[in-house]
Sequence to fold (221 residues):
Amino acid sequence: MKFDIITIFPKIFDSYLNESIIKRAQEKGLIKIIAHNLRDFTTDKHRKVDDKPYGGGPGMVLQVEPIFKAVQKLKSNPSASSGRRKRRKSRVILFSTRGKKLDSKTARRLSKYDQLVLISGRYEGVDERVAKYIADEEISIGDYVLSGGELPALVLIEAVSRYVRGVLGKYESLEDIKGSFPAYTRPEVFEPKKGKKWRVPKVLLSGHHAEIKKFRKVDKN
Fold:
Protein backbone atom coordinates (compact mmCIF):
# COMPACT_ATOMS: atom_id res chain seq x y z
CA MET A 1 0.00 0.00 0.00
CA LYS A 2 1.29 3.45 -0.86
CA PHE A 3 0.73 6.75 0.92
CA ASP A 4 1.55 9.92 -1.05
CA ILE A 5 1.52 13.04 1.12
CA ILE A 6 1.26 16.49 -0.47
CA THR A 7 2.68 19.15 1.84
CA ILE A 8 4.81 22.28 1.94
CA PHE A 9 6.78 20.86 4.88
CA PRO A 10 7.92 17.37 3.79
CA LYS A 11 10.68 17.11 6.41
CA ILE A 12 8.09 17.19 9.23
CA PHE A 13 7.47 13.49 8.57
CA ASP A 14 11.08 12.27 8.70
CA SER A 15 11.39 11.36 12.37
CA TYR A 16 8.04 9.67 12.96
CA LEU A 17 8.04 7.64 9.77
CA ASN A 18 11.51 6.26 10.51
CA GLU A 19 10.73 4.74 13.89
CA SER A 20 9.03 1.66 15.31
CA ILE A 21 6.19 -0.18 13.54
CA ILE A 22 5.89 2.19 10.58
CA LYS A 23 9.61 1.92 9.85
CA ARG A 24 9.54 -1.88 9.96
CA ALA A 25 6.46 -2.02 7.73
CA GLN A 26 8.26 0.08 5.13
CA GLU A 27 11.40 -2.05 5.34
CA LYS A 28 9.29 -5.18 4.76
CA GLY A 29 7.66 -3.57 1.72
CA LEU A 30 4.20 -3.74 3.25
CA ILE A 31 3.65 0.00 2.91
CA LYS A 32 5.40 2.83 1.11
CA ILE A 33 5.22 6.45 2.27
CA ILE A 34 6.48 9.46 0.33
CA ALA A 35 6.11 13.11 1.33
CA HIS A 36 6.01 15.34 -1.76
CA ASN A 37 6.84 19.04 -1.63
CA LEU A 38 3.94 20.97 -3.15
CA ARG A 39 6.39 23.60 -4.36
CA ASP A 40 7.83 21.03 -6.79
CA PHE A 41 4.59 21.30 -8.76
CA THR A 42 4.79 25.05 -9.39
CA THR A 43 6.07 26.77 -12.53
CA ASP A 44 7.13 30.25 -11.36
CA LYS A 45 10.65 31.02 -10.15
CA HIS A 46 9.43 31.80 -6.62
CA ARG A 47 7.67 28.41 -6.34
CA LYS A 48 4.55 30.15 -5.07
CA VAL A 49 1.77 27.92 -3.72
CA ASP A 50 -0.51 30.42 -1.94
CA ASP A 51 -2.28 33.72 -2.49
CA LYS A 52 -4.69 36.16 -0.83
CA PRO A 53 -8.34 35.01 -0.54
CA TYR A 54 -10.94 36.49 -2.91
CA GLY A 55 -13.42 38.62 -1.00
CA GLY A 56 -10.80 39.74 1.50
CA GLY A 57 -9.90 38.42 4.91
CA PRO A 58 -6.74 37.50 6.82
CA GLY A 59 -4.09 34.98 5.87
CA MET A 60 -3.25 33.14 2.68
CA VAL A 61 -4.93 30.24 0.87
CA LEU A 62 -3.21 27.33 -0.87
CA GLN A 63 -3.84 27.50 -4.62
CA VAL A 64 -5.73 24.89 -6.59
CA GLU A 65 -3.31 24.65 -9.55
CA PRO A 66 -0.22 23.13 -7.87
CA ILE A 67 -2.40 20.72 -5.90
CA PHE A 68 -4.19 19.66 -9.09
CA LYS A 69 -0.85 19.05 -10.82
CA ALA A 70 0.51 17.10 -7.85
CA VAL A 71 -2.53 14.82 -7.63
CA GLN A 72 -2.60 14.21 -11.38
CA LYS A 73 1.08 13.29 -11.38
CA LEU A 74 0.85 10.98 -8.38
CA LYS A 75 -2.26 9.15 -9.58
CA SER A 76 -0.91 8.68 -13.10
CA ASN A 77 2.01 6.50 -12.03
CA PRO A 78 0.95 2.87 -12.63
CA SER A 79 2.32 -0.08 -10.68
CA ALA A 80 3.86 -3.21 -12.13
CA SER A 81 2.16 -6.53 -11.50
CA SER A 82 2.87 -9.90 -13.13
CA GLY A 83 4.82 -8.23 -15.91
CA ARG A 84 1.95 -5.89 -16.74
CA ARG A 85 1.32 -2.31 -15.74
CA LYS A 86 -1.99 -1.62 -14.07
CA ARG A 87 -3.57 1.43 -12.52
CA ARG A 88 -3.76 1.56 -8.74
CA LYS A 89 -7.01 1.77 -6.85
CA SER A 90 -6.53 5.26 -5.44
CA ARG A 91 -8.33 7.60 -3.05
CA VAL A 92 -7.60 11.32 -2.65
CA ILE A 93 -8.14 12.72 0.84
CA LEU A 94 -8.20 16.35 1.95
CA PHE A 95 -7.84 17.03 5.67
CA SER A 96 -10.45 19.53 6.79
CA THR A 97 -12.27 20.59 9.95
CA ARG A 98 -15.47 20.06 7.95
CA GLY A 99 -14.56 16.50 7.04
CA LYS A 100 -15.93 13.20 8.27
CA LYS A 101 -14.47 12.13 11.62
CA LEU A 102 -11.78 9.49 11.28
CA ASP A 103 -12.72 6.27 13.08
CA SER A 104 -11.76 2.59 12.91
CA LYS A 105 -14.46 1.84 10.33
CA THR A 106 -13.09 4.53 8.01
CA ALA A 107 -9.51 3.37 8.57
CA ARG A 108 -10.45 -0.21 7.71
CA ARG A 109 -12.25 0.94 4.55
CA LEU A 110 -9.29 3.00 3.40
CA SER A 111 -6.89 0.09 3.96
CA LYS A 112 -8.50 -1.64 0.96
CA TYR A 113 -7.01 0.91 -1.44
CA ASP A 114 -3.64 0.53 -3.17
CA GLN A 115 -2.84 4.23 -2.87
CA LEU A 116 -3.96 7.10 -0.66
CA VAL A 117 -3.06 10.62 -1.75
CA LEU A 118 -3.17 12.86 1.32
CA ILE A 119 -3.50 16.63 0.89
CA SER A 120 -2.16 18.56 3.87
CA GLY A 121 -3.40 22.14 3.97
CA ARG A 122 -1.76 25.13 5.67
CA TYR A 123 -2.36 28.81 6.39
CA GLU A 124 -6.04 29.81 6.16
CA GLY A 125 -6.89 26.67 4.25
CA VAL A 126 -7.08 25.31 0.72
CA ASP A 127 -8.92 26.69 -2.32
CA GLU A 128 -12.43 25.17 -2.08
CA ARG A 129 -12.13 23.83 -5.63
CA VAL A 130 -9.73 21.21 -4.22
CA ALA A 131 -12.51 19.82 -2.01
CA LYS A 132 -15.11 20.18 -4.76
CA TYR A 133 -13.28 18.74 -7.76
CA ILE A 134 -10.05 16.99 -6.71
CA ALA A 135 -10.50 15.26 -3.35
CA ASP A 136 -12.64 12.13 -3.12
CA GLU A 137 -13.45 12.89 0.50
CA GLU A 138 -12.61 15.21 3.39
CA ILE A 139 -11.49 13.83 6.74
CA SER A 140 -11.08 15.37 10.19
CA ILE A 141 -9.30 13.78 13.15
CA GLY A 142 -11.20 15.74 15.78
CA ASP A 143 -13.22 18.78 16.80
CA TYR A 144 -10.27 21.14 17.07
CA VAL A 145 -8.10 23.22 14.75
CA LEU A 146 -4.46 22.49 13.88
CA SER A 147 -1.96 24.59 11.94
CA GLY A 148 -1.88 22.14 9.07
CA GLY A 149 -2.75 18.70 7.75
CA GLU A 150 0.58 17.04 8.51
CA LEU A 151 -0.37 15.65 11.92
CA PRO A 152 -3.74 14.37 10.62
CA ALA A 153 -1.82 12.67 7.79
CA LEU A 154 0.39 10.85 10.31
CA VAL A 155 -2.63 9.83 12.37
CA LEU A 156 -4.40 8.45 9.31
CA ILE A 157 -1.30 6.59 8.08
CA GLU A 158 -0.90 4.92 11.48
CA ALA A 159 -4.61 4.06 11.78
CA VAL A 160 -4.87 2.65 8.24
CA SER A 161 -1.53 0.80 8.28
CA ARG A 162 -2.63 -1.26 11.26
CA TYR A 163 -5.20 -2.94 9.00
CA VAL A 164 -2.58 -3.93 6.42
CA ARG A 165 -1.74 -7.60 6.95
CA GLY A 166 1.69 -8.07 8.48
CA VAL A 167 2.19 -4.53 9.74
CA LEU A 168 1.45 -5.44 13.38
CA GLY A 169 3.11 -8.82 13.18
CA LYS A 170 0.04 -10.50 14.68
CA TYR A 171 -3.39 -9.62 13.31
CA GLU A 172 -4.77 -10.39 16.77
CA SER A 173 -2.93 -7.32 18.07
CA LEU A 174 -5.67 -5.12 16.61
CA GLU A 175 -7.84 -3.75 19.38
CA ASP A 176 -10.81 -4.40 17.10
CA ILE A 177 -9.97 -8.11 17.44
CA LYS A 178 -8.71 -8.50 20.99
CA GLY A 179 -10.67 -5.66 22.55
CA SER A 180 -9.36 -2.86 24.75
CA PHE A 181 -8.86 -3.59 28.43
CA PRO A 182 -6.65 -2.64 31.42
CA ALA A 183 -3.20 -4.24 31.19
CA TYR A 184 -0.68 -4.97 33.95
CA THR A 185 2.87 -6.34 34.14
CA ARG A 186 5.65 -6.82 36.73
CA PRO A 187 6.06 -5.98 39.53
CA GLU A 188 3.04 -7.63 41.10
CA VAL A 189 3.11 -5.03 43.87
CA PHE A 190 4.44 -1.49 43.38
CA GLU A 191 5.07 0.66 46.42
CA PRO A 192 5.25 4.33 45.36
CA LYS A 193 5.84 5.33 48.98
CA LYS A 194 6.01 3.59 52.33
CA GLY A 195 2.70 2.13 53.42
CA LYS A 196 1.06 2.54 50.01
CA LYS A 197 0.80 -0.43 47.64
CA TRP A 198 -0.56 -0.67 44.14
CA ARG A 199 -1.41 -4.29 43.35
CA VAL A 200 -2.17 -6.24 40.20
CA PRO A 201 -5.78 -7.56 40.33
CA LYS A 202 -5.78 -11.07 41.79
CA VAL A 203 -7.83 -12.50 38.92
CA LEU A 204 -4.94 -11.87 36.50
CA LEU A 205 -2.66 -13.97 38.71
CA SER A 206 -5.14 -16.82 39.08
CA GLY A 207 -4.53 -18.64 35.81
CA HIS A 208 -8.31 -18.96 35.44
CA HIS A 209 -8.74 -18.06 31.79
CA ALA A 210 -12.52 -17.80 31.85
CA GLU A 211 -12.41 -15.35 34.74
CA ILE A 212 -9.58 -13.39 33.14
CA LYS A 213 -11.60 -13.11 29.92
CA LYS A 214 -14.58 -11.93 31.92
CA PHE A 215 -12.40 -9.36 33.68
CA ARG A 216 -11.11 -8.03 30.39
CA LYS A 217 -14.61 -7.89 28.91
CA VAL A 218 -13.34 -8.85 25.50
CA ASP A 219 -15.66 -7.71 22.72
CA LYS A 220 -14.87 -9.39 19.40
CA ASN A 221 -17.83 -8.00 17.49
Notes: The longest strand covers residues 90-101. Helices lie at 14-17, 20-27, 64-76, 104-110, 128-134, 150-161, 175-178, 209-216. The CA atoms of residues 44 and 181 lie 55 Å apart. The chain has eight helices and eleven strands.
